[in-house]
Design brief:
The complex is a heterodimer. Chain A is α+β, with helices and mostly antiparallel strands. Chain A has 13 helices and five strands. The chains are: A alpha+beta, B alpha/beta. Chains A and B meet through helix 1, helix 2, strand 1, strand 2 and helix 5 of A and helix 11, helix 14, helix 15, helix 16 and helix 17 of B. Strand 2 of chain A pairs parallel with strand 11 of chain B.
Chain lengths: ~280, ~650
C-alpha cells in the first residue's frame, strides 16, 4: 500500500466513523471542526509514521485492582493506553487531541496519568518501560494558517518543524500521590459530594490556559443553567444592563457558534416531507 | 410452518410474519435482521464451522435456569470438544418463560448431558444462604413445597427437590410479619406506619432500602399503598407503576413544551389510548399554566419562544412568496448575486432572518459547497434563515434556569431527593432520541402547518405514551436516595433489600400463555404440562419476591369484599404468624450501608479526571446519565481517536500479511 493509498484509507475510515457517531450522537460537527479532526489524523500519520507502523498493541486495557480508599472502600482503577510499541525498546504512548505547545508547557498535568498507567502496565507485565510519551495531535496556529492559505509548500515546511511527541518522565512518588488522590475522589463520589466548584474557582484561569474555568468548562456544559455556582458567577460578573435572565437566554454562544451549529446540523437534518411519521 | 396449523388467526399471523421477514431484505442499504433469529443464526454459524467445538476448553454459565432451547444447543455445541461444562442456577428463580426460557434446561441438565455427551454430571450444592435471617429462609422453603411438583408419570419432579437451603444467619428472632387481616385501606395504613417507624428509628439507612414488590404494578393495591405512604410523609419511586410520561417531571417539562409549540389539534379518532393521551396533554398544560403563573421569568421566557416561532413561520411564508414572485424553484442552486437582494428586501421580514441571509458565514458555506461541486439550493438557504437556534434538547436545558426545575438539581446535589433528577435524566435521553431520529434543527418549514406538533407530540411522545414503561434502569445504582422503590418481582431479580414488603400476595392463575399453546406441538420434548405451567410460574415468582429480603419480610393480609390472596399464602397466613401490632421493631438489626461486595472499578479519565474537573457535571452526566446537547469537544476527540485506532489496526494487519 502506498502512502497515498493509506491517506485515502484514512479519509474513508474517518468518514465512516464520523457518520456513525453523528447518527449515534444526533448532532454534527461544523465543516471547519470536522476538517480539523481529519487533519489531526492525517498529520499524525505523516509525522508519527515510525510509531504508527511499529505499534504492537493498541487500546490496551489496564486495571489496578484491590485498592482501598482512605475511608476503607475497595475499588479498582481502570484505564486504556493507546499505543504500546515493542522493538529494541518498549514505549507507551498516549494520544491526546490537545495542543502540543500546551502539553509541552504543562507536562506535570499529564505526568500523573501516564505514570499511573506505566505503573499498572509494568506490574501486569512484569517488564520495565523504557519511555512514556504523549502524542499531542492538535497542531499549532502556524500550520492552521498554512492550511487556510492553501500554501502546500509552506504547510510541508511548517509540518516539518512541528513536534507532536512530548516525553513524559517517570516518577514513582507521583504514582503514590495520584493513587492516594484517586482514592479520595472515589470516597467523595461514593459519599455523594456533588457540589460545584466555588465561584472563586470559576473566575480563576485554568492552570496554563488563558481562559477562566467558567469560560473553558462551564460554557461547554449544558447543566450550567441550573448551576448555583455558575449563576453566582454571572450575577457577580461585570454587568450589562440586561437582567440576569436575559443574559442566560442569550447564552446560546457567540454568533459564530450559533451559525456553526445551525448550518452544520441543518445540512444533515431531513426535511419534514422525508420524515416517516 | 405455513399450512401446518389449522387455525385462522394463527395462519394470518404466519402470513404477517412472512411479510415482515421479506420486508427486512431491502434492495439496497444495510442488511436488516429479525433479532429474534440472531441466536438461530449463531447456531447455524457454529454448525457450519469445523472447529467451533474446540474453541473453549471450559464453559461456565450462570443463571442457567433462564436459558432457552437454542441457547442450550449453542452451549452443548461449543462444549462438545472438551465436554467441560459447568452450569449454575436455581430453578425456583426461573422467571423468564415469557421470553422463551425453559427451566427444564436446568432441571433436566443431568439427563441432557447424558443425551448429548453420554456422561454423568457432578452436583455441587450451594445450599447456604448468606442473605436472609433464619425465619425468612424457613418461610420461603416452606412456601415453595406447598405445591405438588411431582410429575404426572409419578417418576421424578418438575423441580429440583433435594436442595435443603440453610440460613447462614443464626438470628432466630422475628423476621417475617403479616398485617392484621383487614380491608386494604387499614392494611396499607398499618404497613405505612411500620415503614415510617423503621425509617425514624434508623433501622434502615435510607428509605431506598425498603422495597415494595408486586406481581404487577398496574394494580389498585399499588395506588392504595402509595397513597398510604405519602400520607405519612414518605416519598416513593415507582417508575413502572404508571407510564413514564405521567411522572411529575415529565408532565411539567412537556407542559411547557406544549405551551411553547402549541397543542396539536385533536383528530377524529376514537380509542382509549388516543383519548388518554389528549387528557394527558391537557393535564400537562394545566400544570404548565400553574408554573407560569407562579414564575414571571418563566412566563416571559415562554412568551418569547412563542413569538420566536411565530416570527420564524411568518418569515418563512414571506420568503416563499418572494420565491413564487420570481418564479424560482426551491430546488434550484442558490444564486447569491441574483437572490440575496430580493430575499433580504422582502417586506415584513424580521431582522434576525435578514441577518442570517447576509452573514459572511453563509457566504463562506455557499462558496465552499460550490467549490466542492455540490452547490446549496434555495430551500436550504431559506431554511437556514428561518430556523430557531435551539433543538428540543437545548430547550430542556434552558428550562432548567427556572426555579421549579432548578430545585430538582439542588435536591440531588445535597442528596435530599434523587427521584426527580433520575426522571429528568431520562427525559434528556428521550429528547436526544428525538433529535437523533428526527431533527435537531427546527426549521420554520417544520414548524408551519403543525408539522412539528404532529411529529413531536402525536408521533414521538404518543408512541412513548403507548409504550408505557420507563427505561430508567441503572444496574449499578438502581434506586434513588430518599425514595421507597416500588418494583415488579421481575425487576427485583438478583437484588436484595434489608426490608421487603410483598405488596400483593395475589396472582390469579389464568392458564398458560397463548404462545405456549401455539408452540407446544412443535416442541417434542418432556416439558412441564401446559395446564400446570402457570401455577408453577406463579410459585417461582413469589419465591423470588420472598427471597429478596435480608432482615424483614412484610406481607399484607387483605381481607373483605372482593379481596383475595393466592394459595399457599392463604393457608400460611391462616396459621401461626406474627402480626405487625405484635412486632417489636427494636428487635430488628440495623441495615448496613449498601456496600457492594464486589469492588467497583473507576476509570482514570471518565471518573477521576471528570470528577476532579467538576463534581456537579460528573453527577449530572456520568451518574444520572443526562445526554448533553452540545458536546462538540467529546465528539471531536472520539472520532480522532477511533480513526487513529483503525489506522493502527490497518497497519498491523498489513505488516502481519507481509
Amino acid at each position: 500500500m502506498k502512502e497515498s493509498e493509506i491517506e485515502a484509507e484514512i479519509r474513508r475510515m474517518f468518514e465512516e466513523n464520523y457518520e456513525l457517531m453523528r447518527l449515534e450522537g444526533g448532532h454534527a460537527l461544523s465543516a471547519d471542526v470536522k476538517e480539523a479532526a481529519l487533519n489531526q489524523v492525517l498529520f499524525y500519520w505523516r509525522k508519527m509514521r515510525d510509531v504508527a507502523e511499529n505499534v504492537t498493541d493498541t487500546e490496551v486495557k489496564l486495571n489496578l485492582p484491590e485498592q482501598i480508599t482512605p475511608q476503607g472502600r475497595k475499588y479498582g482503577i481502570e484505564g486504556v493506553v493507546d499505543i504500546i510499541r515493542e522493538d529494541e525498546r518498549t514505549v507507551m504512548y498516549d494520544i491526546k487531541t490537545h495542543d502540543s505547545d500546551y502539553v509541552r508547557a504543562n507536562t506535570a498535568e499529564y505526568e500523573k496519568q501516564l505514570n499511573v498507567y506505566a505503573h499498572i502496565w509494568q506490574g501486569l507485565r512484569g517488564q520495565e518501560l523504557d519511555q512514556t510519551a504523549i502524542i499531542a495531535t492538535s497542531y499549532p496556529s502556524s500550520i492552521r494558517n498554512a492550511i487556510a492559505d492553501k500554501d502546500e509548500k509552506h504547510l510541508v515546511k511548517k509540518l516539518e518543524s512541528w513536534n507532536p511527541l512530548i516525553d513524559i518522565p517517570f516518577n514513582q512518588e507521583n504514582v503514590e500521590e495520584t493513587i492516594q488522590e484517586f482514592g479520595e475522589i472515589v470516597d467523595s463520589i461514593e459519599s455523594r459530594k456533588f457540589a460545584p466548584p466555588s465561584v472563586k474557582r470559576l473566575k480563576s484561569a485554568l492552570p496554563g490556559k488563558k481562559y477562566t474555568f467558567a469560560v473553558q468548562v462551564c460554557r461547554n456544559c449544558d447543566a450550567r443553567f441550573s448551576c448555583s455556582a455558575y449563576r453566582n458567577n454571572v450575577r457577580t460578573s461585570a454587568s450589562k444592563a440586561d437582567s440576569l435572565l436575559k443574559r442566560y437566554i442569550k447564552d446560546l454562544g457567540s454568533d459564530l457558534e450559533r451559525e456553526n451549529w445551525r448550518f452544520s446540523n441543518l445540512e444533515v437534518t431531513p426535511s419534514p416531507e422525508d420524515l416517516e411519521v | 410452518m405455513r399450512g401446518t396449523v389449522d387455525d385462522e388467526v394463527l395462519n394470518s399471523l404466519i402470513n404477517m410474519y412472512d411479510f415482515y421477514k421479506s420486508s427486512l431484505n431491502p434492495q439496497q442499504g444495510l442488511p436488516q435482521t429479525d433479532f429474534s433469529l440472531v441466536q438461530q443464526q449463531a447456531l447455524n454459524a457454529l454448525n457450519a464451522s469445523d472447529n467451533s467445538e474446540q474453541v473453549f476448553k471450559h464453559i461456565i454459565i450462570d443463571e442457567y435456569q433462564d436459558t432457552n432451547t437454542i441457547q442450550e444447543k449453542l452451549i452443548f455445541k461449543l462444549a462438545a470438544g472438551h465436554t467441560n461444562i459447568c452450569v449454575v442456577g436455581d430453578d425456583d428463580q426461573a422467571l423468564y418463560r415469557f421470553r422463551g426460557a425453559t427451566v427444564e434446561n436446568f432441571v433436566e441438565f443431568p439427563q441432557r448431558t447424558q443425551q448429548y455427551f453420554g456422561c454423568n454430571v457432578e452436583e455441587i450444592p450451594l445450599n447456604i444462604n448468606y442473605r436472609s435471617r433464619q425465619q425468612i429462609v424457613s418461610f420461603y422453603n416452606d412456601f415453595i413445597i406447598r405445591c405438588n411438583w411431582k410429575k404426572a408419570s409419578g417418576k421424578g419432579f418438575y423441580r429440583i427437590t433435594n436442595k435443603n437451603i440453610q440460613a447462614h444467619s443464626q438470628d432466630t428472632k422475628t423476621s417475617v410479619v403479616a398485617s392484621t387481616p383487614a380491608n386494604p385501606d387499614i392494611v396499607c395504613a398499618e404497613i405505612a406506619d411500620v415503614v415510617r417507624e423503621l425509617i425514624d428509628t434508623n433501622k434502615v439507612q435510607d428509605p431506598n432500602q425498603i422495597a415494595f414488590l408486586y406481581p404487577s404494578l398496574k394494580s389498585k393495591q399499588v395506588e392504595r399503598m402509595i397513597g398510604a405512604l405519602e400520607g405519612v410523609g414518605l416519598r416513593v419511586y415507582a417508575p413502572r407503576a404508571r407510564r413514564f410520561l405521567e411522572v411529575d417531571e415529565a408532565i411539567a417539562v412537556f407542559g411547557i413544551y406544549l405551551k411553547i409549540f402549541g397543542k396539536p389539534v385533536r383528530g377524529d379518532f376514537s380509542g382509549t389510548d388516543y383519548r388518554d393521551f389528549h387528557r394527558w396533554m391537557d393535564e400537562c398544560i394545566n400544570v404548565a399554566n400553574t408554573l407560569i403563573r407562579e414564575d414571571n421569568a418563566l412566563a416571559k421566557y415562554v412568551k418569547e419562544r412563542q413569538e420566536e416561532i411565530k416570527t420564524a413561520i411568518s418569515d418563512y411564508k414571506i420568503l416563499l412568496k418572494v420565491v413564487q414572485q420570481n418564479k424560482w424553484d426551491l430546488n434550484q442552486p442558490y444564486d447569491i448575486n441574483q437572490m440575496k437582494r430580493p430575499l433580504c428586501d422582502a417586506k415584513g421580514l424580521s431582522d434576525a432572518s435578514k441577518k442570517t441571509l447576509v452573514t459572511t458565514y453563509l457566504e463562506r458555506v455557499i462558496n465552499k459547497q460550490i467549490e466542492e461541486g455540490t452547490p446549496l439550493n434555495l430551500k436550504y438557504v431559506i431554511n437556514a434563515a428561518t430556523s430557531v437556534d435551539w433543538s428540543v434538547l437545548d430547550l430542556f436545558y434552558r428550562l432548567c434556569i427556572f426555579e421549579h426545575f432548578k430545585n430538582m438539581f439542588d435536591a440531588a446535589e445535597t442528596g435530599a431527593d434523587e427521584g426527580p433528577i433520575c426522571n429528568m435524566g431520562l427525559i434528556t435521553q428521550y429528547l436526544a432520541r428525538f433529535t437523533d431520529e428526527y431533527v435537531s434543527v427546527i426549521t420554520a418549514q417544520f414548524l408551519s402547518d403543525d408539522k412539528f406538533q404532529v411529529t413531536f407530540f402525536m408521533g414521538f411522545l404518543y408512541s412513548l405514551f403507548r409504550l408505557g414503561e420507563s427505561e430508567y434502569e441503572d444496574a449499578n445504582d438502581p434506586f434513588p436516595k430518599g425514595r421507597i422503590p416500588f418494583l415488579t418481582v421481575h425487576q427485583s431479580k438478583g437484588l436484595e433489600f434489608p426490608v421487603v414488603v410483598l405488596g400483593n400476595p395475589r396472582k390469579d392463575d389464568k392458564g398458560p400463555q397463548r404462545v405456549e399453546e401455539i408452540v407446544r406441538p412443535f416442541i417434542n420434548r418432556d416439558s412441564e404440562p401446559l395446564e400446570r405451567m402457570s401455577e408453577f410460574d406463579i410459585m417461582r415468582m413469589f419465591y423470588v419476591a420472598l427471597s429478596r429480603a435480608k432482615n424483614l419480610l412484610v406481607i399484607p393480609h387483605y381481607k373483605g369484599r372482593g379481596q383475595k390472596i393466592s394459595e399457599p399464602f392463604k393457608t400460611i397466613l391462616s396459621g401461626e404468624v406474627t402480626r405487625i401490632p405484635d412486632f417489636d421493631v427494636n428487635t430488628l438489626p440495623k441495615a448496613k450501608e449498601d456496600v457492594d461486595d464486589l469492588p467497583k472499578n473507576y476509570s482514570y479519565t471518565s471518573d477521576y479526571l471528570l470528577y476532579q474537573r467538576c463534581p456537579r457535571q460528573y453527577m449530572i452526566f456520568r451518574k444520572y446519565g443526562f445526554v448533553a446537547s452540545r458536546s462538540q469537544t467529546m465528539f471531536f476527540g472520539t472520532v480522532v481517536h477511533q480513526t487513529i485506532e483503525d489506522l493502527h489496526h490497518l497497519l498491523m494487519s498489513r505488516s502481519q500479511k507481509s
